[in-house]
Design a protein that fits this description.
Layout (H helix, E strand, L loop, with lengths): L2 H8 L16 H10 L6 H8 L3 H13 L3 E5 L2 E3 L13 E5 L2 H11 L7 H28 L11 E3 L1 H10 L3 E5 L1 H6 L7 E6 H9 L4 E3 L1 H13 L3 E4 L10 E5 L5 H9 L10 E5 L9 H5 L5 E10 L2 E8 L9 H5 L5 E5 L4
Antiparallel strand pairs: 1-2, 1-3, 4-8, 5-6, 5-7, 6-9, 8-9, 10-13, 11-12
């Protein structure tokens, strides 16, 4: 087995990516993963295996951590996800090899994803989605059985714009980063710098070399702009069991939570629906903007026409069963004819 073949095996590189792996990892990172050989080590142990001084080994590991080639293990707890952030002061820090799956975040959002052939990008994006569904699937099955129970999972709930802004306001530290789903999939022209992280989630994100720090005011402006762009706000309502770590602003064509929901038949339970649109027909001009905004075809035109301000328009009808309660129709309605009403037991 060659050196690069052994690396591909240890780093769990999918077959489609193996010809291009040197585009996304550096030679020193290949040597590092090979030297670690699947083990959790500290900087001195890595230095011994690579023939490096402790400081040089530590610098290599910290760079590899920011590039998602290794994960930190702090007092025995792996720090490899937004929920895992811990203060390291006076704690033992070691490192474990990561996987190619973990490396995709920085590669797609801020590195050279575009240098990889399109057909390979599409195959890897589908592989990534499959892995995501495999990871979250068991939790989503539990949510489907008991929607009110607490589970530690991101993108648990649809949020109205005002709810998303309230979460921004409640946080002290804010980071924005490119959406990994949209950056990988590239299936639409929606804005990409749309993922929001709060407090410890934001600290984790910066520590991992992703995103940029923004003020509370700029964070609010970004969320408002995502709403104008037709992106749905998906996060987790504060149920009192844990801190808020952030929220996403999602399209239906690229974003993993919504695509996973379709595959797992978890509609309205994950992400959970808490509101339904209610239209005042007396105020509605049947302009059809709600049709363009709704990602779930809850609004549509029918052949029947109605006279509005002396002009005949095809009537717009609304199917409440198809509504997910994202609120995009209400925030854009020029007639203020749509309100979001809370659902019972939601």
């Amino acid at each position: 087995m060659t050196k690069i073949e052994k690396f591909n095996e240890l780093f769990q590189v999918p077959p489609a990516m193996r010809r291009y792996i040197e585009l996304v990892v550096e030679p020193g990172e290949i040597d590092l993963v090979l030297a670690m050989n699947g083990e959790t080590l500290d900087a001195s142990e890595v230095g011994d295996r690579l023939g490096l001084a402790s400081q040089a080994a530590e610098e290599l590991l910290l760079r590899a951590y920011r590039r998602h080639v290794v994960s930190k293990v702090v007092d025995g707890k792996t720090v490899n996800y937004v929920f895992d952030y811990v203060e390291e002061k006076e704690r033992r820090v070691r490192f474990a090899p990561a996987r190619f799956y973990d490396r995709l975040d920085p590669v797609t959002t801020q590195e050279n994803w575009g240098d990889i052939p399109e057909e390979v990008r599409k195959e890897i994006s589908q592989w990534w989605l499959d892995g995501y569904i495999e990871k979250v699937g068991p939790v989503i099955e539990q949510i489907k059985k008991n929607p009110d129970a607490y589970y530690q999972i991101k993108q648990r709930d649809f949020l109205l714009l005002e709810e998303a802004l309230e979460q921004v306001d409640a946080a002290d530290f804010h980071v924005v980063l490119n959406c990994d789903c949209r950056s990988a999939e590239q299936a639409c022209s929606h804005m990409r710098e749309t993922c929001i992280r709060f407090d410890d989630g934001a600290r984790y994100t910066i520590e991992r070399g992703l995103g940029r720090v923004v003020s509370k005011a700029e964070c609010k402006e970004i969320v408002i702009n995502t709403d104008r762009d037709g992106l749905m706000h998906i996060g987790s309502k504060n149920r009192g069991e844990s801190r808020l770590f952030g929220l996403c602003n999602c399209c239906s064509c690229c974003c993993f939570p919504l695509r996973a929901a379709a595959r797992l038949h978890s509609d309205k339970k994950y992400p959970r629906t808490h509101f339904v649109a209610q239209r005042n027909l007396d105020d509605c001009s049947h302009c059809g903007l709600c049709i363009k905004r709704c990602r779930f075809k809850a609004f549509r035109r029918v052949p029947e026409k109605i006279e509005i301000a002396g002009k005949m328009r095809r009537r717009v009808i609304f199917d409440a069963e198809s509504c997910r309660g994202c609120g995009l129709c209400a925030t854009a309605c020029p007639d203020s004819a749509i309100e979001m009403k809370p659902l019972a037991n939601a």
